[in-house]
Amino acid sequence: MLERLNQAMEHIEDHLDQRIEVADLARIAVTSEYHLRRLFSALAGMPLSEYIRRRRLTVAGADVLAGGPTLLEIAVRYGYTSGEAFARAFRAMHDVGPGEARRSGASLRCQPRLSFRLTVEGSSSMRYRVVEKGEFRVVGRKIRVPLVHNGVNPAIADFIRGIGKETLDRVESLSDQEPSGIVGVSDNLDPSRAEGTELDYYHGVVTGAPAPDGLDALTVPAGTWAVFESSGPFPQALQHLWRDVFTQWFPSNPYRSRPGPEILRTRLSQNGTQADAELWIPVERTTS
């Protein structure tokens, strides 16, 4: 998988002055567009689209300093429809406009080329199982919130605090299958998974029952799920689990992620500093 991913990185380098389709990169990596975006973001710490943009502006910066082509010619070469659009993007990355950079020979920022290699970390193993699950519903309360990569998500924390105990008890009574009890469900995320992009968050249960009046519901089609277990400090251990699933488990197993909600069942210690968690990720077997 990593060799194919590096071949996709080479394709990016060879086509920085052309249109780059994620579908082409996914074919080179022999995976789906959805899984490629997820895997790249987890490995690189930035969305795939952001990496391509930063690589283009890095190479464009070298062209600006070298002289020769006009700034408009450089803008068009790297896919910008106007000199103004190029100047805005250039300044956002380099903290200086292209005209000023050319005149003064300013220092510019560089996004290095990425390549991926395997690092062996045999100190721990991941506990997981694969489950085939029929269609079900997530029933509870829903909110649209920004994605937060590190620490507690304040929007989710405020939302949960605002749900009354009577409502929570009513919701929990609907739980009739795994994962049991109250769960947090993330759905409809931006493909980039960039910090600050929005997602639908459900605080509810997994059930086969219809949603009572006053509650939100998400119908989830039948499919395969990889279920991961984790114990450790809250919330760091949970966020590290998400990272490890994509940086360690997927590259080592014949599965890839597929579109669908991600379900997290968390049981906190009495003082709220430790958590036992079960993370459900929708997956499908790879064909090669």
Shape: elongated
Major beta sheet summary: 9 strands, antiparallel
Helix content: 25-40%
Through-space gap between termini:
10 Å
Question: What structural class do you assign from the helix and strand content?
Answer: alpha+beta
Q: State Rg.
A: 22 Å
Number of E-type strands: 9
Low-confidence stretches: none
Please count the helical segments: 10
SSE string: HHHHHHHEEHHEEEEHEEE
Integer average pLDDT: 90
Q: Can you characterise this structure?
A:
- The chain has 288 residues and is an alpha+beta fold.
- 39% of the residues lie in helices and 25% in strands.
- The protein has 10 helices and 9 strands.
- Strands 1, 2, 3, 4, 5, 6, 7, 8 and 9 form a 9-stranded antiparallel sheet that branches.
- A hairpin with a 5-residue loop joins β8 (262-268) and β9.
- The longest helix is centred in the first third of the chain and has 19 residues, at 48-66.
- It is elongated, with a radius of gyration of 22 Å.
